[in-house]
Amino acid sequence: MTVLTFYIKTMSSQGLWPLVGIWPEHLTEKQYAQYLRANELYLAIQKEVSLMNYNDALTCWSNHVPTSRPFPDFLFIKH
Amino acid sequence: MLFTTEFNKLVHIIRKAHKEMTWRAAFHTAVGFVNVSESGDHIAHPHSMYNTWKPENVRALAGHFWALKCLYREAGDLGRSSAFGRVSDKLFAAWDGGYTVTYQAFISQRGVGSSVINEVCDYYRCAVIAEPHFTDHTDRVMHLMAVTNAPRSRVNLPKWTF
Predict the structure, then answer these.
(1) Which of B5, B24, B107, B117 is the best residue to mutate to test the A interface, defined by the most A CB atoms within 10 Å of its own CB?
(2) What's the gap in Å between the CA of B151 and the closest CA on chain A?
(3) How many other C-beta atoms are found inside a 10 Å radius of the C-beta of residue A62?
(4) Residue B134, strand partner residues
(5) C-alpha–C-alpha distance, residues B34 and B117, integer Å
(6) I need a surface site. Which of B14, B102, B107, B117 has the fewest CB within 10 A?
(7) Is the pLDDT of residue B80 over 90?
(8) Residue A62 C-alpha, separation from nearest chain B C-alpha, in angstroms
(9) Which of A19, A32, A37, A74 best tests the B interface by mutation, with the highest count of B CBs <10 A?
């Protein structure tokens, strides 16, 4: 299992995806801790994906990441 | 807000420094701190915004929220007027009773949400970056004074005593 797969599986198994990129106004105390973890993991996923080549990254993203999270195109330099 | 690793670390540092603080409070404190980063030198001061407030600062903040209450009432926003009025009442009561007010205790109270915390942070930022020739009002007060056509002198300028 790669680090990226581990991060993605953790996000899915712990139900952290809905907490990414939201403004945490109405969360419970437990959800605040999860919110911090979710966003940190999401940053880590983006970092791992940015190290892949563009097409592999795109495939991986579309296969494993919920469609509500757009592909981070800005991480790749396009010529 | 752009979530960054540095921001996440800051939340954890704040939580670690104040064991009794909730994650919610630590999060909003970190957001406030990012907004007042110019005053980073003051964070460890025992009478900074993040620690114990001196009675004169409690009184000044109570007056500030009272002014917001009055300005919102004039602007016709009675909901916000009463919300800020309640915050003002609590601070006046604490000052009047001679109670010690800490940042943690203040933000843990019912009715103190992100709007109030942001206002306190903005007040603090305006106060600590003030200079003899220029002191600004908070963004909220500036907006309300423009809306209600009130003179600048109507609201006391932010001031923080260390």
Answers:
(1) B24
(2) 34
(3) 10
(4) B131
(5) 13
(6) B102
(7) yes
(8) 23
(9) A32
With cut-offs at 50, 70 and 90, classify the pLDDT of residue B141.
Answer: very high
Which residues lie closer than 8 Å to B140 by C-beta, 6 or more apart? B68, B119, B122
Do B5 and A43 count as a contact with CB atoms less than 8 A apart? yes
- For residue B22, the model assigns a pLDDT of 82
Least CB–CB distance from B1: residue in A23, A27, A43? A23
Residue B148 or residue B42, greater confidence: B148
Task: Report pLDDT for B35.
Answer: 66
Q: How far are the Cα atoms of A23, B69, B75, B86, B119 from residue B79, in angstroms, in the given order? A: 22, 10, 11, 11, 16
Which single residue is written with the structure tokens 């010529």?
Answer: A79
- Is the ipTM reported for this complex over the cut 0.90? no
